[in-house]
Amino acid sequence: MSVRAIDSLINSHFLDKNQEGTTSYLFKDLKYRRKIDDVDQLLNQLNENGVGACVISIMEEKYASWVSQAHNRYPRKILPAMIVDPRRNLKEIQKVVHYHETYGVRCLRIPPFRYMLPPTDRIYWPFYVKACELNIAVSMNAGMPGPRNPGWVQNPIYYDEVAFHFPELRLIMSHCGQPWTEEAISTLLHWDNIFMSCCAVAPKYWPEQFIHFINTRGKEKMMFGTEYPTITWERARTELNSLNLRENVQSLFFNENAKRAYNWDADVN
């Protein structure tokens, strides 16, 4: 645990008393998560597990003020992201601008499973354009979703076309891409502007070729993440230690790639 980390995705549901949600059938221990409503308490828990900074996704409007205040207090420790609903069209674009200017949002989170439309659908394109204009990242799920919605819309191959049309966009695939691991790896290799947040899937379940990619050709693409409360920081760190990531890869995986993907001068110490 010598290399300090950036958690490339945390959900603001840690502010809720009940954190079970729609994935409790997969993650039986979600019911034991305790509410964290103090920013210093959050940073202490992160620090205990060798994590020095994090990206927090604002999942609902009620969380925006808390995340923003935490960012204002610790701008190099906490970076705000926001869930985007592309079905709201111009109103949502206006909300993105408002959240960027008011709450410091630096990443748009767009989970295709919620809208049952693949990332190539034109409904998303205005948000790709706006992210380029604001110079902020877009993070989108890749792989079979935990919630029981159709998963085909999150096949990583769709991001190949997105990257073709938007080479200026910093695009982050999250959730590891399973069962389409080869498609995820091929897409990551095909474009310089695509990264992967290795979150929401416990490391012990990562396929062998996924781990090999982190250690080799994907060393500048892959990022540590948990999507806490989905995966605890202790579990992620413990299971990653058993994977024996190469020494020359660890700084990239745990923090340097996230700094580049989010264009963020994070302080991990």
Write up what this structure looks like.
- This protein is α/β, with parallel strands linked by helices and 269 residues long.
- It has one domain: Alpha-Beta Barrel (TIM Barrel).
- Helices cover 37% and strands 16% of the residues.
- The chain is built from ten helices and eight strands.
- An eight-stranded parallel sheet has the order 1-2-3-4-5-6-7-8.
- Helix 2 (64-73) links the parallel strand 2 and strand 3 (78-83).
Quaternary organization: single chain
Number of domains: 1
Helix content: 25-40%
Structural class: alpha/beta
Mean pLDDT: 93
Beta-strand content estimate: 15-25%
Distance between the termini: 13 Å
By DSSP (H or I, 4+ residues per run), the number of helices equals 10
CATH class assignment? Alpha Beta
Biggest sheet, in brief? Answer: 8 strands, parallel
Gyration radius (Cα, Å) is 17 Å
The fold-level CATH name is TIM Barrel
Q: Provide the low-confidence segments as ranges.
A: none
Q: Indicate the CATH architecture.
A: Alpha-Beta Barrel
Strand order of the largest sheet: 1-2-3-4-5-6-7-8
CATH superfamily, called what?
Metal-dependent hydrolases
Shape: globular
